[in-house]
Design a protein that fits this description.
Layout: H1 6-19, E1 30-33, E2 57-58, E3 66-85, E4 87-89, E5 92-94, E6 100-105, E7 110-118, E8 125-143, E9 150-157, E10 188-190, E11 196-198, E12 205-212, E13 218-225, E14 228-230, E15 243-248, E16 255-256, E17 261-263, H2 266-281, H3 307-317, H4 319-324, H5 331-339, H6 354-364, H7 375-389, H8 407-423, H9 429-445, H10 468-480, H11 486-503, H12 520-532, H13 541-555, H14 588-602, H15 608-625, H16 639-642, H17 693-710, E18 712-716, E19 726-727, E20 732-738, E21 749-755, E22 761-768, E23 774-782, E24 792-794, E25 800-804, E26 811-817, E27 824-828
Parallel strand pairs: 10-17, 23-24
Antiparallel strand pairs: 1-3, 2-9, 3-8, 3-9, 4-5, 6-7, 6-8, 11-14, 12-13, 12-15, 15-16, 18-20, 19-27, 20-23, 21-22, 21-25, 22-23, 25-26, 26-27
Length: about 850
């Protein structure tokens, strides 16, 4: 991997010293208390790693017992408990809790922890070594004093050789920096896209240069303003050249960024392969570990985690990439491995039906069709096939809903049925019919014709409007099947959209960023409705989307181009009672999917200034995942191994061989910077560093819409290369497509889709040009028919679409015959 700079060493030193400390599980706990004295003294203050008068939990002034309970989210090994209590007066801590005990939950009842109690205690700072260590997911402090109980800090620590005194905890002194920090996308930037960086210590203005690493020659110069620099108009010819950004001037020493490259389709080149490999590795039972945490097709998946739709979106947006990706999955090998007598499942929560479902998948369903089936098709087959065998699931993370066939599980079938028209050769007709019959049978039972008014919490289970896009897709399927109820799906989508327009307040962040990795389901559905069904879209939809745009642009107005949670929080609130992971809410899926929302919206709004700003914000979120953040780290702990051009992965790591075993899975995104780090504090506390299949599914969605947006389709004059907006019948022109494929030259032919006004389509081929990702071919348009060279398009009087990709993810131009005369109009879509 590329050489590290001084900046890397500095950040490693900042994070390494903290990584060596014993793990304090309380920092990521959900904390509740029996009572609270006043608003400023909430129980969250007792687990914030600060020992101070203004950072304590105080109970009501009443008779004991008083209790504070920590839900750790999962069973952990506990080797030490620490307690700081009382209040500080004249540099001395006084009035600590006197009579108390610690208890742990054994799965059925609370049990006292031996030697972790006090009678007539007079010490403010206490430490209890637990030997032997105990395992539990909940700890409780019971205080039997009357009056106000004052607790400054509770620490729940993993076994370690030694522990720092709890009284030394407190706000860490802010380091004094003497050199500019410069944060960029570690991998690089898209040649034609926004190229922005952050130098957070620049308070006013400073100079910057883009410098060739090899020659140390400045090739671009500009100014940093309030921490933000922009070199978007720098478009070099050599995609192999490495650059860095150097910031100088002002009252600090010159700072230098990580090296990066500038290429077409940079994010797709760095991310598509690891995104696919994640889905290969984390399959339940047959992936890299013989377990099925959660009992769904992917380890740690659940009914709302969107794996199958995300795969289909990626394929529809960029089929040639996945058709040519190296094949790793062997269906017959997986089948033989699972059906072997010595196969053993490693037990995990909610996996009671997994063995039977997998056995039935391999023995009752038709396998994928063909000798060279792309891995993405095998993954789609696995997801849909598994759910056909076992559609009833339950989220393993304290979901109040029982095991059942969830609406969002049924919704996933809509994507498969819609996409089947485009990947039909890889699935038997019998497999399709089983999926089709299941979806139509379950749709009404699951409540998908009804208006769903549930708005979920930070967990991301119930994004408002999640049924809009599935209903629109099912309408297409119903028409293709000749069903009489096709209009009913449109009506359901319209009713749900009407409810969103009237009832969902985008000013409330719970309805947007607060939906975590599921937020994309709403906006992509609204955009599809507005774009493909303008006559049936409810009144006010366009204005609702405009409102969303204005709010998101306002919340992204900062030196990181990072969409904040609200005016107070940068990311999801740290403390949330009843939340899994508690104080440790992480949100890499939210960041990874947000480009999809920005780019989908930019494609339909009629304000070019705002559309461009959405492009910048989308790029800013890709940059954030790749190191343009206060830690200068990639979201994946394995970032340097899995993502091209990454120097540093996420500095905090979840333990191996835990829960869904995603820590060694290729392409796992783990965490991102949080409110504690923004606007710039690299010493801030970390959030939960565990990956999740739902995060990577959100990454797939972000990549799908980025592929679609970055694809360019043009009709040009073969001699001048000028783009044409109108054509004459019989005119021979050049179709030119730039798409995120062929990075290594392996894709020599690109499929051009020619789609009639009736939805019928055929595939023609474009040949590769010299520049990677560029393809072209000759076309003759005629309203009368005929033949000419490589490709003939017969227009008649119906519009024709030509483009790359399939269905609603296709990037295209539309040829529209004029009503009078033979003129043909070209419209880019």
């Amino acid at each position: 991997m590329r050489r590290l700079l001084i900046l890397v060493v500095m950040l490693v030193m900042v994070t390494q010293s903290r990584a060596d400390e014993p793990v304090n599980y309380a920092l990521h706990a959900v904390v509740t208390a029996s009572s609270v004295y006043q608003e400023p003294y909430q129980p969250q203050k007792a687990i914030d790693n600060q020992v101070a008068n203004d950072s304590r939990w105080l109970s009501e002034k009443s008779n004991g017992p008083h209790m504070i309970t920590l839900d750790l989210g999962r069973k952990v090994e506990i080797g030490c408990l620490q307690l700081a209590s009382g209040w500080k007066e004249n540099d001395q801590w006084v009035d600590p809790v006197s009579n108390f005990r610690f208890e742990f939950w054994d799965g059925t009842q609370w049990r006292r922890i031996a030697d972790a109690s006090g009678q007539s205690n007079t010490q403010a700072g206490l430490q209890f070594i637990i030997k032997p260590a105990i395992q539990s997911d909940k700890i409780r402090l019971v205080i039997n004093d009357d009056g106000i109980a004052r607790v400054a800090e509770v620490r729940v620590l993993a076994p370690a050789a030694s522990y720092e005194s709890v009284m030394k905890s407190g706000p860490k002194p802010k380091p004094e920096y003497t050199t500019y920090f410069v944060f960029v996308n570690q991998s690089g930037y898209d040649l034609n896209g926004p190229k922005r960086f952050t130098a957070p210590l620049v308070e006013g203005e400073a100079d910057f240069s883009v410098v060739e690493v090899k020659t140390n020659r400045a090739v671009y110069q500009g100014r940093v303003y309030k921490g933000l620099g922009d070199f978007s108009d720098f478009q070099p010819d050599n995609g192999e050249q490495e650059y860095c950004v150097v910031v100088s001037g002002g009252n600090l020493k010159t700072g230098q960024s990580d090296p990066f490259v500038i290429r077409p389709f940079m994010m797709e080149q760095a991310s598509l392969e690891p995104a696919l490999r994640f889905m290969v590795d984390c399959r339940s039972v047959i992936g890299t570990h013989p377990s099925a945490y959660g009992g769904s097709p992917w380890r740690d998946g659940t009914y709302y985690s969107y794996e199958v739709p995300s795969l289909i979106l990626m394929y529809l947006a960029n089929p040639a990439f996945f058709e040519h990706a190296p094949i790793e999955i062997n269906y017959e090998t997986d089948k033989a491995k699972f059906l072997a007598d010595d196969f053993k499942l490693v037990r995990a929560p909610n996996d009671q039906d997994v063995m039977e479902a997998t056995r039935r998948y391999f023995t009752e369903l038709d396998p994928p069709v063909g000798d060279q089936v792309p891995d993405i098709m095998k993954l789609i087959h696995w997801g849909i096939g598994y759910y056909l065998m076992d559609p009833a699931t339950r989220d393993p993370s304290s979901d109040p809903l029982p095991e059942q066939i969830h609406a969002q599980t049924v919704e996933q079938f809509a994507y498969f049925l819609y996409g089947y028209a485009y990947f039909k050769p890889y699935f038997s007709n019998a497999f399709y019919r089983q999926a089709r019959d299941f979806a139509f049978e379950q749709w009404e039972k699951a409540g998908l014709f009804e208006v769903i008014e549930t708005i979920g919490t930070y967990k991301g289970r119930h994004c408002p409007g999640h049924s809009i896009m599935p209903n629109l897709l099912m309408a297409r399927v119903a028409r293709r099947e000749g069903r009489e109820d096709a209009e009913r799906f449109i009506q359901a989508a319209a009713a749900q959209t009407r409810w969103v327009i009237d009832q969902v307040d985008f000013n409330d962040p719970v309805t947007t960023k607060g939906q975590r990795m599921s937020e994309h389901k709403l906006m992509t559905g609204l955009i599809l409705f507005l774009r493909d069904y303008p006559r049936q879209a409810p009144e006010g939809l366009r204005d609702k989307i405009k409102q969303w745009v204005d709010i998101m642009i306002a919340r992204s107005d900062n030196m990181w181009d990072f969409r904040r949670y609200d005016d107070i929080e940068w990311t999801l609130p740290r403390f949330t009672a009843g939340s899994h992971g508690g104080a440790g809410w992480n949100e890499p899926g939210n960041v990874a999917a947000f480009p999809a929302l920005c780019l989908a919206t930019a494609s339909v709004i009629d304000d070019p200034v705002k559309a461009h700003r959405l492009e910048e914000i989308a790029a800013g979120h890709w940059d954030d995942l790749f190191g343009r953040n206060p830690l200068g780290a990639h979201s994946a702990h394995r970032g340097p191994k899995d993502f091209w051009g990454v120097e540093r992965g996420w500095p905090k790591k979840f333990p191996d061989n835990t829960c869904a075993r995603l820590e060694l899975v290729r392409g796992t995104i783990s965490s991102t910077c949080a409110t504690e780090h923004y606007p710039f504090d690299p010493t801030g506390d970390f959030r939960h560093p565990e990956g999740w299949t739902a995060f990577n599914a959100a990454l797939n969605v972000g990549l799908a819409y980025t592929c679609q947006y970055d694809t360019k389709v043009e009709i040009v004059d073969p001699e001048s290369g000028r783009r044409l907006d109108s054509l004459e019948p019989g005119q021979t022109v050049t179709i030119r497509v730039k798409a995120p494929v062929g990075f290594d030259g392996s894709v020599s032919v690109l499929p051009l889709v020619v789609e009639s006004g009736r939805g019928e389509f055929r595939i023609c081929n474009l040949a590769a040009d010299r520049e990677p990702g560029c393809y072209s071919g000759s076309v003759t348009f005629s309203t009368q028919g005929g033949e000419n060279n490589d490709l003939i398009v017969i227009g008649g009087r119906r519009p024709i679409r030509l483009g790359y990709g399939y269905g609603f993810m296709m990037k295209s131009v539309m040829i529209i015959p004029e009503r009078t005369g033979d003129q043909l109009r070209v419209v880019t879509r």
